[in-house]
Amino acid sequence: MSIDLKQFSALQKASKDSFFEQKKLLKQVMLGKTVLCSVCRQPLKLYTPEQNEPTGVRCVKGCTDISLDFV
Ligand SMILES: [Zn+2]
User: Fold this and answer.
1) For labelling alongside 4, which of 12, 14, 18, 58 has CA 20 to 30 A away?
2) What is the Å distance from ligand 1's center to 41 Cα?
3) How many CA atoms lie within 13 A of 32 on its CB side?
4) 58 CA distance to ligand 1 centroid (A)?
5) Residue 71 CA, ligand 1 centroid: distance in Å
6) What are the Cα distances from residue 40, in Å, to 15, 36, 67?
7) 39 in the Ramachandran plot: left (φ > 0), alpha (ψ -120 to 50) or beta?
8) What is the mean pLDDT of residues 19-34?
9) Which pTM does this prediction carry?
């Protein structure tokens, strides 16, 4: 099996971009701003360790699901 290096770097760039997008999104939600899911247009909700839920930012439908690590 061979890996197409061009494809590989494109993939890396895409995941890097989405990483920054997620960070930006998380920051806004944490600041208490209303951020809508890009898929279902429902407001995203922040889940913290105090709630008995996996921590992260999710929409009701689950199309946006960003996990957070509260260390
Ligand atoms: Zn959604």
Assistant:
1) 18
2) 6
3) 0
4) 8
5) 26
6) 21, 8, 18
7) alpha
8) 91
9) 0.69
**68, two tokens:** 């957070």
Q: In a 3-state reduction of DSSP, which class is residue 65? A: strand
Looking up tokens 């992260």 gives 56
Question: How far is the C-alpha of 68 from the C-alpha of 12, rounded, in Å?
Answer: 21
Name which of 26, 20, 62, 23 is nearest 46 in CA terms: 26
Residues 24, 18: contact at Cβ < 8 Å? no
Sorted by sequence, the CB contacts under 8 Å of residue 24 that are 6+ apart come out as none
Q: How far apart are the first and last CA of the chain?
A: 39
Q: What spacing in Å lies between the alpha carbon of 65 and ligand 1's midpoint?
A: 8
pLDDT in the model for residue 53: 82
